[in-house]
Design brief:
274 residues, alpha+beta, 13 helices
Length: 274
């Protein structure tokens, strides 16, 4: 997680992106996102450049001019401005500049979905795909295999999602395959779900139940959680028969476990201590 000066530098670029995204066409915003992710790939492959662009011994203007000289004519004007805003900021470590560039690219893709009124669908598609992967050890192993070429894993994802999910969803899953922010594939997908919810000013509640909640039950649960947390809550439901009954709700670091399985385990633990 970015701290101090790095967080402030990222916020300046993110604010610029948000301002741009309020009026730009969705397709243009998506292009900006792809270009920022390409810049992040360059930074990942070139540690010397990464260090030069985050060197506190150089002025922010000097670092901004350096990235401009490298990118002018290769990316769009908005990408150029966002990249130079990032490079001109202060960074606690070179790795944080890389993480910020990648994150800004993802934020741009989410902003493009928001502009196209597709963000809720993208959020749900990312979550559902994560559930599909969780439910198939073979698929999970294939997509999480860092030894396999990324292009090969991306082709598998394309075969599974092409025509069945929004283009932004497909692109984000490809980014997750690369270990977005140094995360595992599944963790990267979860983070993207949360970023989608945050852009809609919502918090995610991961709910695990033995049998599916009805639409009305899910709606009532969402309302109660929204009242508890003081903001809208996006309920993401996972069905796991092994919990036997009741439900488990995870919101951020808060876990409310009212499952039958948990109660049985507590009972077993209490009996074993007698």
């Amino acid at each position: 997680m970015m701290q101090g000066v790095s967080r402030e530098s990222f916020r300046a670029a993110a604010d610029r992106l948000d301002s741009y995204a309020t009026s730009a066409p969705a397709a243009d915003i998506a292009t900006t996102g792809d270009e920022l992710l390409s810049v992040a790939d360059v930074l990942r492959r070139q540690p010397r450049l990464r260090r030069a662009l985050s060197d506190p011994g150089r002025s922010g203007q000097d670092r901004a001019e350096l990235i401009r000289s490298l990118l002018t004519g290769k990316v769009g004007d908005e990408t150029l401005e966002l990249a130079s805003t990032l490079a001109g900021g202060g960074w606690s470590a070179a790795s944080e500049l890389l993480d910020a560039t990648e994150r800004l690219g993802v934020e741009a893709l989410l902003a493009s979905a928001d502009r196209a009124d597709d963000l809720s669908d993208v959020e749900d598609e990312l979550f559902r795909f994560g559930q599909v992967v969780d439910g198939s050890p073979e698929l999970s192993g294939a997509l999480s295999d860092v030894v396999a070429p990324p292009a090969q894993r991306a082709e598998l994802v394309k075969a599974l999602l092409d025509g069945k999910a929004k283009p932004v969803t497909l692109r984000l899953v490809e980014v997750a395959l690369g270990g977005f922010g140094g995360r595992s594939f599944q963790s990267a997908l979860s983070r993207m779900v949360e970023m989608s919810a945050e852009r809609r000013d919502r918090q995610v509640a991961y709910v695990t139940v033995a049998a599916p909640l009805s639409d009305d039950e899910e709606r009532r649960l969402g309302t109660k959680l929204s009242q508890l947390y003081g903001r809208d809550v996006s309920v993401k439901q996972t069905v796991d028969p092994q919990v036997l009954g009741g439900m488990s709700v995870l919101v951020g670091s808060d876990l409310y476990d009212g499952t039958v399985l948990r109660r049985l385990n507590d009972t077993r633990k209490a009996l074993s201590q007698r």
